[in-house]
Amino acid sequence: MLRALVDICGPAFARAAGAADAVAGRRATFVAAPATTNTVVDTVGLAAERGLAVVPRGSGSKMDWGKRPLGVDLLLDTGRLDGIWHHDREAATAEIGVGTPIRAVQAALALSGQRLAVDPPSATATLGGMLAWNESGPLRHRFGTPAAQIERISYVTSAGDRAESDGEQGRPGIGEIDGVLLSALVRLEPLPAARRWVTVPVSAAREVPGRVAEIRALDVQPSAIEVDLPTPAGRRPPGILAVLLEGDPADVVQRAKRLATGFGVNAAVAPTAPPWWGRYPFARGAVALRVTVPIAELQAAVYALGDATGIPVPIRGSAGRGGAMHAVLPGTLTAQRVEGILDAVRGVLLARDGRCVAIAAPPEISAHIDMAQTRDLF
């Protein structure tokens, strides 16, 4: 098998897996890094012929997310499937290889005064990893999820056949694709000339819906509305609400001033984001939850998490349209305890049109609890 992979990918791009080549604690057997569509087709086709399980890997920032795979025979590294393959500035579209880091995409597009309107919290996220998990940052409030900004996806099926999908007319959406993503044709947005963040303290989750109502009443056209509850122990205030405004410099300054005046004397305006903005409240080794709930029910979600856990649970994320928030539980809890917390929170949210799923956890926990799958996040 290794000789065959070397023949397809080249001697420097196929090898036996090492200790670091694992998915949710399950070590792979081989690693291959094909560089073209044809070599991906050949690699996946070879694995299919031999009955081997293939798992794609970009930067590896989310390899511990989700349900543990039954097998990881071959890690298919997408690092060589990178670059902006076609950029149509006038049509505001670009076809991008899935192994391209989002930061590199944004830097290249900025030279043309454009951007992909996404900001995944994973610092090293590639286009493929972001799309596979529909990983949204604050800009989701204005522009929607990454999946919503895709015109077309090119991929290789698990049988080794090349295919395309626009998610319409019976074709699979990104969350339903069984195979390896190759590239995506994405819609682009103009790069904003100015940005301002307006922040205001909130003492509890129950204050957030009222603040969001104020933002809407003032018609300041926010690009994002984020909340951090509670802030780290010992810091005051207990929570912070932050609003991102973008656009022409004079207009942005005027809208920021109007919003800050509406918020009152405790509001602040800054040209840079708060330190926690666009970052997950968890680190590797913790139990990470994704909570989706109407903003009017945020207090119920926060209370349910704290009540079930017995300690304040940090929760951070979108307080605006279609918002998803993330919460963190200690990685030292037992799997049984985590499952009990999930059941209790889900019971509270069920009647409130909300959801709570575990997206990441240490292997000793994720192997025994109901973990999210990619399709759960679309």
From TrEMBL:
Q: Known SUPFAM superfamilies for this protein?
A: FAD-binding/transporter-associated domain-like, FAD-linked oxidases, C-terminal domain
Which PANTHER family does the entry mention? GLYCOLATE OXIDASE SUBUNIT GLCD (PTHR42934:SF1)
Q: What's the protein name?
A: FAD-binding PCMH-type domain-containing protein
The organism's place on the tree of life at top rank: Bacteria
Organism phylogeny: Bacteria, Bacillati, Actinomycetota, Actinomycetes, Micromonosporales
- Residue ranges of domain FAD-binding PCMH-type in the record: 23-191
One Pfam family recorded for the sequence: FAD_binding_4
Key word RNA-binding present in the record? no
Q: Which InterPro entries match?
A: FAD-bd_PCMH, FAD-bd_PCMH-like_sf, FAD-bd_PCMH_sub2, FAD-linked_Oxase-like_C, FAD-linked_OxidoTrans_Type4, Oxid_FAD_bind_N
Q: Which organism is it from?
A: Winogradskya humida
Keywords tagged on the record = FAD, Flavoprotein
Q: Where are the transmembrane segments?
A: none
